[in-house]
């Protein structure tokens, strides 16, 4: 069984947010509630200010603190290494949102960022929090896939409706391979500068394993012990996309 | 994909096709998704698995780049868009805008069908009181007005103004011939003077090509970018991002980049060197770089030539009188003597605020890290001195020999289209040939001595000229893919004009122009229509893509091309025969594709059907290449056929001299007019030279209204998912914010997040202040996007309408609107 993981090369990331818009399209996300955000930071002064950015999906940790605090075991780790939420079990207590060191979880029924609230324009029926005409065909609450129901927490699922269909034993879900492109997470598939890679971390011959080895892949907030399955390549200093310093000034 | 196709039965495919999806589409199944799991789920929340997904090829519409897209439709609903892997611009990839397409299709504020106005009063606060009409009534109403004007000999008083034209089906074969067939110089006034004509004229004045350039970025080792925000807004955006990942992350040696702009943006941040320049002074920087290249002897001898004695006689401040044998350029030592000798880095520091040592370093790197490209766009040329700035920057390409070189820049070849179904010249009556419209100038005074003699279009001048009855008043105006009531400089002037004339809008969306309209003829959105689109200048070799509908139009809309054909059929005289022969857009496409039968594309496209299946026809390579000062033409195997000087002049360097002209013969051809209208020094008016920009207004801050990455061809302002990501670098999530330096905020007594008032000579707007070090202390940056007074429920009333306070001043040579040249004051609101 694969242990899926992602590598993000910050030296190539242009901060364009296509990962965010592809994700919101694929996962029918509400405005501003992206499973995948790019965070922007400024430091320094004119005429030499710094602008930096940091793309941040769910880290799909090996030791997910969100899972450990969940009172109903709604958050769980799949055999192939993905952290998911079973919306049928989630009671919306938000413990996981507090426990997650990366701030990548969303609760429904928050105040809409953009008014008028689009949920009122495309109203949901039954359990669904809204029902846009452009929603994807997949609706799989056991794996936290599809339109978010009312009263639950949601987050990046590594496009589980796609990756779970990949042929067993695949080392890398490479979007340039026509046989595999439909199984690649939306953010990886669309990333124009090819800053994202997705593959089996347990396979030492996978492209992701090679990149982590060759380019010293690092993990965000590794001291928490969560052991993310998302690795960053920092390119040795020339990249504008960067791991933010603790004193950096966060915008957006 | 073959494997996936097998997962779905043919029967199922036919069912879906019959339900209104496009012909020729590929099919993707979702086979294998946990079918076994379904039975274990509670019924109330059972997973739904759908394998009725159809994928059709189309073209994105969010920018001019024309990326090929795969559109995913399941059970008649479009839910996903990804890049077409077989398309050379998209390569399976997407920019952030590509994924917004479904929101545009299902925008709840779209017009649902043709309508006419019943409230004769027009204005921001007037409800047009539109009522539905039939398409026949809509088309007939337009044709009747056109016929009546023609009967009176006033056909020139009908105008058709357009923005984003796509290709033959909406412009080349339908719109453009109408000017000739009907007889009006005002049919086909484009928006190019509000887009990027500054660069087109700069190229035309120097190398004779009135065009944007094609670029071979992947083989370049150095990029020097002026005001072309490569990673946020420059076209083709998606491909630029792909290029960036390659040249910065994979290519050996890594391409070095210096970027010039007025604030710290993503491009400057990601580059090796950021030069944050005073607005309007890019030309001074380019002249100083040229000065260093010459004084340090770094010019390309193969392309430019050399002094007869082989010594370098370019010494700062000293004129040159030694003979210089120029090879492919013209006027180098004259340029030096009248201008460049005094354009030292120290001088340029005083003008641009860029430190002299950085100018020297940039010049040395640029000239010694070849191939190198100097590129520029609106930031550099949206000023009164714009064409001069552009000429100075483009001259750097000549100095380092990048024109038509591998890793350099060139121009674009057109597609091998077949002939249209009819020829307009076969359908001209006497009125069309000799009517009174032949003797009247265009309403925008393009090409007129009183107006803009060199300009391609002057759409921004239309309301001013109409209101002054100079040269005359319009009667009926029709709009396609443009909303100047919102986006033109001094935008409110359009409201006054449109209150006086009969207005027809064809947008599917309730924009400001539509609110002033008497007739609404809504176009189908891009995922619902057939259309062709040859490429914008990309890599030189020809490329033409096709839009195929993912679904039938959701509402009672008509593709603009078909609307024109239907109006044309209702015109009096032989024009109607022409449009009857066109039949419809799909018929035109079939005729265009005939050309591919004799010239098959590299991807095997040789028919209409295969074009639809692949979404694109293209044929590599670009046919010409300059190698170390010699020009060669492609002979089928390689660039092996040497070109004569006459051949180069005819095909590549299309100036009077057949060379790259530092001394422009094109400007000299209208010397008296240029000198009179610009007041420029007769000794240097046709050389790239420094001229202070004429800033509009009298404020203390430069006002720059930049374009954001999320600006999706005018519709982002009504897309909540785009609004939330609109200005990430400055945190503009509900509306865009005004970037202001902390020193300004302190002096004016406001804080980050405060509402501020921005005042120009035209009026004032309010904006949310973002106090940041990203922007220069003398500049305020407020991206254009919001401030709509119509346009849909999310757009209306959000943010600041920047173009209402931007003066309508244009570069007298290029006609380019000076969007970025205002000076304003700010205060706490």
Descriptive overview:
The complex is a heterodimer of chains A (252) and B (829). Chain A is α+β, with helices and mostly antiparallel strands and 252 residues long. Chain A has helices spanning 18-26, 65-69, 95-99, 118-121, 160-163, 186-190, 207-214, and strands at 4-9, 37-43, 50-56, 75-77, 83-85, 105-107, 153-155, 196-200, 230-233, 249-251. Chain A has one domain (4-251): Alpha-Beta Plaits, CATH 3.30.70.20. The N and C termini of chain A lie far apart (38 Å). Helices cover 29% and strands 17% of the residues of chain B. In chain B, 61% of the residues are buried.
Secondary structure elements and pairings:
The complex is a heterodimer of chains A (252) and B (829).
Chain A: E1 4-9, H1 18-26, E2 37-43, E3 50-56, H2 65-69, E4 75-77, E5 83-85, H3 95-99, E6 105-107, H4 118-121, E7 153-155, H5 160-163, H6 186-190, E8 196-200, H7 207-214, E9 230-233, E10 249-251
Parallel strand pairs in A: 1-9
Antiparallel strand pairs in A: 1-8, 2-3, 2-10, 4-5, 6-7
Chain B: H1 2-5, H2 10-18, E1 26-28, H3 35-38, E2 53-59, E3 68-74, E4 77-83, H4 101-105, E5 115-117, E6 130-132, H5 135-151, E7 158-162, H6 168-172, H7 175-183, E8 187-190, H8 197-207, E9 214-215, E10 222-226, H9 237-249, E11 256-261, H10 266-270, E12 273-276, H11 282-295, H12 301-304, E13 305-307, E14 324-326, E15 329-330, H13 332-338, H14 345-352, H15 356-368, E16 372-376, H16 378-381, H17 386-399, E17 409-410, H18 430-434, H19 462-467, E18 476-480, H20 484-487, H21 492-498, E19 502-505, H22 512-515, E20 519-520, E21 531-534, E22 543-547, H23 560-569, H24 575-582, H25 585-598, H26 608-614, E23 616-618, E24 624-627, E25 630-634, E26 639-642, H27 645-651, E27 660-661, H28 665-668, H29 671-678, E28 701-704, H30 720-723, E29 738-740, H31 742-748, E30 755-759, E31 764-771, E32 779-781, E33 822-828
Parallel strand pairs in B: 7-8, 7-18, 10-11, 10-16, 11-12, 15-27, 18-19, 19-20, 28-32, 29-31
Antiparallel strand pairs in B: 1-2, 2-3, 3-4, 5-6, 5-20, 9-17, 13-14, 21-22, 22-23, 24-25, 25-26, 28-33, 30-31, 30-33
